[in-house]
Amino acid sequence: MTVIDAPLEKLEAASETSRNELSNRWASMGALIIAVLWTVPTAGLLVTSFRPEDDINSSGWWNVITHPSFTFDNYKAVLGGSQYSLTDFFVNSFVITIPAVIIPISIATMAAYAFAWMSFPLKNTLFILIFALQIVPIQVTMIPLLKLYVDLGLAGNDAPGGGFYTIWLSHSVFALPLAIYLLHNFMMEIPGELVESARVDGAGHVQIFMRLIVPLMVPAIAAFAILQFLWVWNDLLVALVFGGGSLDISPLTVALANLSGTRGADWYLLSAGAFVSLVVPLAVFLGLQRFFVRGLLAGSVKG
Amino acid sequence: MSLGEKLLQAVIIIALFFAVVGVILVLTSKLRSRLGELIQSAAFLLPTILLLGVGLLYPAISTVRLSFRNNFDKLWIGFDNYKTIFTDSDLVRVLINTALWVIITPIVATFVGLIYAVLVDRSRFEKTAKALIFLPMAISLVGASIIWKFVYDDNTGILNAITDTFGLGRHHWLLSSPGNTLLLIVIFVWVQAGFATVVLSASIKAIPTDIVEAAKLDGVSGVRMFRYITVPSIRPTLIVVLTAITITTLKVFDIVRTVTGGNFKTSVLAYEFYVQSFRSANRGLGAALAVLIFVLVLPVVIYNVTQMRKVAR
Fold first, then answer.
1. Is there a domain that residue A81 lies in?
2. pLDDT for position B204
3. Domain limits for position A219
4. Chain A closest CA to B23's CA: distance in Å?
5. Has keyword Magnesium (chain A) (predicted)?
6. B112 touches chain A (CB under 8 A)
7. I want to staple A70 with a disulfide (CB 3.0 to 4.6 A). Which of A50, A171, A202, B106 is the partner?
8. Model pTM?
């Protein structure tokens, strides 16, 4: 019996592996098709951005296979001193993004500390209220907020900071509920004895916050900083509404959206311009992917 | 302003911010009494309460009020703005488009993400494969729209080249409704599928190996494994992904503005809100559209949060 059974089992095992290999091959095929579909549009734009103006306007990017001709002119025009230069908007994006990341995160870290380690009346009510504010879509706040900025004299070219304050403030406000909630979660993982013993040793809240908590929170702060950076850098709505259409303070996204809408003589520069705007978030993403994915789900319901 | 002045402004605001916060913290740091603790709490929370109160809570309430007023904020008009949304033919079109977006995007993006996550699971190229599909998530929706504008372009787009090759002719893809809305939805599916892949992939890896091994011993594999083991095991995560994409879809604005500018019957709620509020100065109607977004998002968010709790456990 065993003599006959053994080859049979082997045969079954062999057919099993061949079936697996077959399904593996189909699986690889399927994965490959999706990967190609997802990559081709971006690859097309990348190729386009290196083609001469006439080629971009007259033929598709895949023609480079038969008629290869490449140039850096588009990037020179977009980054250099031409009338279509995007460098101003590039700088604007940084001017908007850096304070709009640093300020809300600092405020949120302080608030998260207060909710975690301080005692004051209405603590829980206040925390639940902030948690609930996460779900307010930013659209719901925009009309009155803009009116408020105008009334306060913060909007417009003559305003302090050339009008940047409206954008900084808005991004800060919209970041706070989620930032406080996430940082509070991380902070609750710090052992309470650590804070207690520091208190017994006579350290005040400010000392504990600056010397003990902030250093421990660095990974969490970094994770949220990356999310906030990408949100602000990629934002169009806030910049459009609160920038008041003033190109002097508009970020890259607004400049590109305008360029894309007109389809004028400078249409061919759009591909290079788009790639310039993609470089920064892609670098951040590829460099710090680990942090990004962690915060992603938590941030998915952000207003 | 020159570039230098702009950068200076950024430095000034940051310095100003830290100076103010620093002074407050130093002033309150010496307090040790019970009252002192209260004052310290206030110092830690004051910026938050001020910003959220003035920048979020007050405007939100104000918008709800405004949605019942006329477009000049002069007269109470009850539910008239909402009636307009549901009766004006252009706005009904907007509602239908939004419904298309909200139904199609989450389902297709999650489906593609799930299939892809399963297919590349434990393969040699898993990391690269996932990074590829996830990249669109990191770029701006304006960037994504431009990438696809080149795909849909009448003369030089690859879509027309493909349909032409297969004898289906060339088309003005973005001009004819409702096909153009579907093409815009494709862009957002392209962006969101990576999100679904990454989150679902993590969840697939968390399925206990003994369940998978037991199923394998019973001769389950391939499609049946997917149908009876994988999908039921990650059901809560699937719902979280579906609802999360639904929420972002309801607020999508950049794609419509960049690709068609809301023309050719492609407008959606979030875009219409922007147009009515800030272009046409119909502030009452704009406010009503914003409130409608909020009302639609609310139940999805609540469901999402309850499911997220389940996943976390």
1. no
2. 92
3. 87-301
4. 12
5. no
6. yes
7. A50
8. 0.91
Low-confidence ranges of chain B (pLDDT < 50): none
Minimum Cα–Cα distance from B17: chain A residue: A103
Closest CB to A48 among B150, B293, B294: B150
Task: Report residue B72 as tokens.
Answer: 């000049």
Domain residue spans of chain B:
3-66, 81-312
ipTM of the shown complex = 0.92
Angle, helices A87-117/A214-234, rounded to nearest 10 degrees? 140
Domain assignment of residue A78, yes or no:
no
Structure tokens at B190: 């392209």
A168 touches chain B (CB under 8 A): yes
Which residue of chain B has the CA closest to A302? B248
Distance CA A25, CA A254 (A): 45
Both A255 and A164 in one domain: the answer is yes
Superfamily for B81-312? MetI-like (1.10.3720.10)
Average pLDDT of the residues in A293-303: 59
